[in-house]
Write a structure and sequence with these properties.
845 residues, alpha+beta, 28 helices
């Protein structure tokens, strides 16, 4: 048996030496697909783990938090400790600004006497860091603080240095001690943020929040404890399960991650097809050789095992190379994912790649297993076939292939039923992706039958006068479907998926631009500078500008974050002018009717993402509880909001003041008269209000900034889409080229029948171009279906945004162009070989 393996090994090496492009295609297809999948997995997994690390930083081992609206009275913590025997720690959290370094820090103040408060957050105690506890509790001014930095370059000593910080426009100093980067108990950067740790008393002092906390962390392990604390807790406060809230926030980003994984899966499937198609063509070329080996007495099992080992070796090397390239690609990809998450979901400053060798080993093993599994049927089928059946003509192969059509029709019908079911049933985002996948597969299975129907059209009497060239081209297209069917279906899937994504992005861009132009309608927007303390300056400015003749109208903005159904929701209000009201666009109701209802008491507006997540619509009622005030509001309308998936509510000022009496104006929108010089007007405001740090932004600046963020968000989608499409074009080009090279022996017969070189070259060029045109035309409705499913089903279920589908002629031209490019590239080399190779030398490439 060893002699058999040596012979088979020599035959395989000789085959790939004669046909290196087959080996290159199998290796490149699998390597590229593994690269994309691994890069997306590592980047997405790391972003998720960084979010978990950052959220755990402020809750530690706590299961629940007591939160106020907006702060918690410290006396509540004292009463809680006296009444209940439960683990509890006070917490004060704020974002402070270092003006010298132009960097923000998370300041965390807690009771350092409670060792669990530090250990649960940092993973170790201060004594383990060889830092005296009294140094941070009983400290002189300025207070001492410990800095855990996410940067790799830290101070090499534990000597404290005084650093200035700003919180709400109020400066203060801290004696900052940097943690030594070589501490064995600590790995810099694992916290995910730049953290300043201080004692609770010192934190209240520097932040000017004496007697106030942002939260109380609790460890409640039994339902009875939870019920007792809930019953005792005064009305203005809420007991929030931290895991539920974190999960609600994480779920918003899960849709984003799922979209990325869907793109990577598409690239993996196409790359796997490239390997499978190259292997399939390689086996077809070796059919006669395998028949001879079987006739010489080599067992079929020996041939089967050898071919599987051949695939295993190629897949192992390709998978290892893909893991390395994916790891290199994951670092820049993680930065792009983090930027997108920061723009839409939550603040995540850490971009450390997190993985384990076991994960990489599992990825390698899974890839090899899938590759061998997908190739197993073809190898087993050809290895066990009787020797006489291995030598088959193209006519026999085409006849066998025709019997597959009824099965494909049943699968296509099943795909259609599944697509409709996933759309109509409440199957969530997973169901939306299943609908897009089955819809694509159904279209792809219909493509070979469409080519057959067009090819048979030449047999009718109406087409009997066609030139012989066209008849041969159409009949050859039908006869060669056993070679080209899978390639055409893959081309349709790749082009339609890519076109559907581009159609969704372009439709979203058009809807976003229209919404942005309507929403950002004022000429100027004024707000306080970041890290400035809220004041009455904006309200005074609003009252002064009311009598300014250069101002046509103006609006004020107020906002407050609250907890509603374990979700952070922003409530907005203000004195809105008629122009600002007209800028709001509503679902299913005219704007006049909506604003007519809002004027009435206890009516509210909600944005579309919040309405989609909780299945709300106009006329429904929602209950709000804030600072001891409880009220039931009727939803007057649902407004479009493409700015963020976060839930937003809008209520009239008189309702808003009942809940948030101390809230001050946070922004002003100015509509200036046409003859007003905007630059001169801004200079006038700055001169009249020098003591206030107002930020005045022009309308065009906001639009440009929002457009830049939008484009930046979809950069990663465009990159992955381009990679998947590139892999697809390579796969289809290789498949068509292999098919055309297999036809070179036929060219010898045509030459003997009197066909010149240009006619033979025309047949080789014409068939792929014909198939490319048919595929491109059929891909247009498939692309429109994909675009509709992505915008009306997947996007709505993922983010809660309803986007009108806006097809364009340029996209249709791109679809046809890509099909023709793949067809032409696949026929260039065979055509060149036909023109430059004597007919007697034409043979298998």
């Amino acid at each position: 048996m060893s002699r058999h393996y040596l012979l088979l090994k020599a035959i395989s090496l000789g085959h790939f030496y004669q046909h290196p492009w087959q080996l290159i295609l199998m290796w490149a297809g699998l390597t590229a697909s593994v690269t994309v999948v691994v890069a997306i997995y590592l980047a997405s997994y790391s972003a998720h783990q960084n979010f978990i690390s950052a959220s755990n930083l402020f809750i530690g081992k706590a299961t629940h938090q007591i939160r106020g609206q907006p702060v918690v009275d410290e006396q509540l913590y004292v009463e809680l400790k006296q009444r209940f025997n439960v683990p509890a720690t006070p917490q004060l959290q704020a974002t402070v600004w270092d003006n010298a370094k132009r960097q923000s820090y998370q300041l965390l103040a807690t009771d350092l006497l409670i060792d669990d408060a530090i250990t649960s957050t940092l993973g170790l105690s201060l004594t383990a860091l060889n830092i005296p506890l009294t140094q941070f509790i009983f400290s002189s001014m300025p207070p001492n603080a410990l800095l855990f930095s996410s940067e790799s370059t830290l101070s090499t000593s534990l000597q404290a240095s005084s650093q200035p910080f700003i919180y709400q426009n109020s400066p203060f100093h801290l004696n900052v001690t940097h943690l030594h980067p070589n501490q064995p108990q600590h790995n810099p950067g694992t916290l995910g943020v730049d953290l300043l740790l201080v004692d609770i008393g010192n934190g209240q002092q520097v932040l000017n929040m004496q007697g106030q906390l942002t939260a109380i962390n609790l460890v409640l392990t039994h339902d009875k404890q939870i019920d007792l604390v809930k019953d005792w807790l005064p009305k203005p406060y809420a007991l929030v399960p931290v895991n539920d809230e974190r999960q609600a926030l994480d779920n918003l980003a899960n849709a984003f991650h799922l979209n990325l994984h869907a793109l990577s899966l598409l690239a993996f499937i196409i790359g796997l097809f490239l390997m499978f198609n190259a292997l399939r063509f390689s086996l077809q070329q070796r059919e006669r050789l395998i028949s001879q080996l079987r006739s010489l007495g080599i067992p079929s099992k020996t041939i089967q095992v050898h071919l599987l080992c051949e695939v295993f070796l190629i897949a192992s090397i390709a998978s290892a190379a893909g893991l390395l390239l994916g790891w290199l690609l994951a670092n820049p990809l993680l930065i792009m994912i983090t930027q997108s998450i920061n723009q839409f979901y939550y603040a995540l400053s850490h971009t450390q790649l997190q993985y384990s060798p076991i994960q990489l080993l599992l990825c390698w093993a899974s890839t090899v297993f899938i590759a061998v599994g997908c190739s197993g049927w073809s190898i087993t089928h050809i290895a066990k076939r009787p020797p006489l059946q291995l030598v088959r003509t193209s006519h026999q192969l085409a006849h066998i292939h025709q019997h597959l059509f009824p099965y494909w029709q049943r699968i296509a019908t099943t795909c259609l039923v599944v697509t409709i079911s996933m759309i109509l049933l409440p199957t969530g985002i997973i169901g939306g992706f299943i609908a897009t996948a089955t819809g694509l597969l159904g279209f792809a299975l219909c493509l070979p039958q469409l080519v057959t129907a067009i090819s048979k059209f030449n047999r009718s009497s109406k087409t009997s006068n066609q030139p012989i060239f066209f008849k041969m081209l159409l009949r050859d297209s039908q006869r060669q479907l056993h070679h080209t069917a899978y390639a055409l279906m893959a081309l349709l899937i790749a082009i339609s998926a890519s076109g559907g994504i581009n159609l969704m992005v372009s439709s979203f861009h058009n809807a976003f631009q229209h919404w942005l132009q309507q929403r950002v309608s004022a000429d100027l927007y004024i707000r306080l500078a970041e890290h400035s303390q809220p004041s009455t300056g904006l309200q005074a400015l609003y009252e002064q500008l009311a009598s300014n003749k250069q101002v046509a109208s103006q609006s004020t903005y107020m906002s407050q974050q609250i907890l509603w159904r374990n979700e952070q929701v922003k409530i907005q209000s203000g004195q809105w002018s008629q122009k600002t009201q007209d800028s709001m666009q509503f679902l299913k109701r005219p704007s006049k009717l909506v604003w007519h209802d809002v004027i009435a008491k206890n009516h509210i507006l909600i944005n579309e993402p919040l309405a989609r997540r909780h299945q709300l619509t106009w006329g429904d009622e929602i209950k709000l509880d804030w600072a001891g005030h409880t009220a039931i509001f009727t939803i007057a309308g649902v407004f479009y909001d493409y700015g963020s998936p976060q839930g937003q509510l809008w209520m009239q000022p008189f309702d808003y003041q009942r809940f948030f009496a101390k809230t001050k104006t946070k922004g002003i929108a100015l509509y200036l008269r046409a003859d007003t010089n905007i630059d001169t007007f801004i200079q006038t405001i700055n001169k009249q209000w020098p003591q206030h740090t107002f930020v005045i932004t022009h309308q065009q600046q906001i639009i440009e900034r929002a457009t830049h963020i939008f484009k930046q968000t979809f950069v990663i989608t465009d990159v992955l889409n381009g990679i998947a499409l590139g892999i697809a074009l390579c796969a289809i080009t290789a498949a068509l080229m292999a098919t055309q090279l297999a036809r070179l022996p036929e060219m010898r017969l045509l030459h003997a029948l009197g066909c010149n070189g240009w006619l033979r070259a025309g047949l080789l060029m014409g068939q792929p171009i014909f198939l490319g045109i048919v595929t491109g035309l059929f891909a247009i409705p498939a692309t429109l279906l994909q675009g509709w499913l992505l915008t009306e089903v997947v996007n709505v279920r993922s983010f809660g945004w309803s986007i009108p589908l806006t097809p364009n002629l340029l996209l249709i031209g791109q679809i046809l162009g890509l099909s023709l490019v793949a067809a032409v590239l696949g026929s260039l080399y065979p055509t060149w070989k036909t023109l430059h190779t004597p007919a007697r030398q034409a043979g298998w490439e």
